[in-house]
Amino acid sequence: MYKAIVNGVLFSDGELPGDNKGQIIASISRQNALPSQLQEKLAQQAKSLGANAVMNFDIAQAGHHWLFTASILKWDTESLHGVGIAVKIPKEKMQEALQS
User: Which domain holds residue 74?
Assistant: First the structure.
């Protein structure tokens, strides 16, 4: 199971204990964007909802429609997308969340 802490927010690709604060979505419309940059955007969104974790975190790269890439001025042909569920984990359950 994947787990990481980015800007004080715990990211997991699985379930976490806590209060569900809602789904969060972020994207970067730049082909060579790093997953950590996407996680920073999601961490900021989670914190704004009062959450300290993101569960069911998933990341994908998708191509732009050919109409958007037909311009000479548009070099990037893909975007990086991330999705997850913001969760507020009580302090007493944080250690359990890190170990599970």
Answer: 3-99
Give the amino acid at 59: I
If one counts the domains in the chain, the total is 1
SS3 string, the chain, reads CCEEEECCEEEECCCCCCEEEEEEEEEECCCCCCHHHHHHHHHHHHHHCCCCEEEEEEEEEEECCHHHHCCCCCCCCEEEEEEEEEEECCHHHHHHHHHC
Mean pLDDT by 10 residues, the chain (100 residues): 93 95 92 87 98 96 55 61 96 87
What's 9's domain CATH number?
A: 3.30.110.70
The encoded tokens of residue 56 equal: 């069911």
- Residue 3 near residue 79, CB atoms below 8 Å: no
